[in-house]
Amino acid sequence: MARAGQDSVRRLKSNKKRKASSNSWLTRQLNDPYVKLAKEQGWRSRAAFKLIELDDRFRLVKGAKRVVDLGCAPGGWSQVVRKRAPGAAVVGIDLLEVEPIEGVTIFQLDFMTDEAPGLLTDTLDGPPDLVISDMAANTVGHKQTDHLRTMALVETAAHFAVEVLAEGGSFVAKGFAGGTDAELLALLKRHFKTVKHAKPPASRKGSSEWFVVAQGFKGRGESEDSAG
């Protein structure tokens, strides 16, 4: 029990070997209610709550039959899909190793490789009606470079969704504010009936991350006709 006058916020003991940024991240983790709640409820990461909150708002997952989870490590988003759409076929991909999840086929592979898209769609035995992406590029410490690298992944995920989604399907992806997403939004607005930005409550207030939610995929034929 904390003594009277003791700081109620958990703080790390100083460690000269740790970088200041690492100390800051660890302190946030220790005091983050979503981290605690994720552990209590059995989610693999606090990111699960971001998809839960997006699904509560946009009704993305319920009724989904085939789902692709891009950048699925450590598995929180796939867990949410399995919980909310237990009958759905789910396939995930990530560079990192992911512990098995019942009902989810997981590939440890770079999504940017030529064989990855076909592998994902072949596994589902039919077009997905939901593509979700929590992918982000490894940071190099240069804000503009990190932003551009992540947005390149988001745009690749969007092009993949446009190529494989079933008519009426949805696409959700994490991005970061930075003003270079005009082409991405143009692509999505051309192919989906609605495109919105959202920042779920589970996203940290100080974070520049946002999520793009595109719903009502028009189908490739209709989209091509409307474009030209």
Identify the notable features of this structure and list them briefly:
228 residues, alpha/beta, Rossmann fold, 7-stranded mixed sheet, 39% helix
**Could you give the order of the helices and strands?**
HHHEHEEHEHEHEEH
Round the Cα radius of gyration to an integer and report it: 19 Å
CATH class: Alpha Beta
CATH architecture designation: 3-Layer(aba) Sandwich
The shape, in one word, is globular
CATH superfamily: Vaccinia Virus protein VP39
Provide a descriptive summary of the structure in words:
By secondary structure, the chain is α/β, with parallel strands linked by helices. It has one domain (45-227): 3-Layer(aba) Sandwich (Rossmann fold), CATH 3.40.50. Helices cover 39% and strands 19% of the residues. It is built from 8 helices and 7 strands. The protein has helices spanning 20-30, 33-41, 47-58, 76-84, 116-124, 143-164, 182-191, 220-227; strands at residues 66-70, 89-94, 104-108, 130-133, 170-176, 192-198, 209-217. The chain has a 7-stranded mixed sheet, with helices on both faces. It is globular and about 45 Å long. Mean pLDDT is 84; it is low at 1-14 and 21-27.
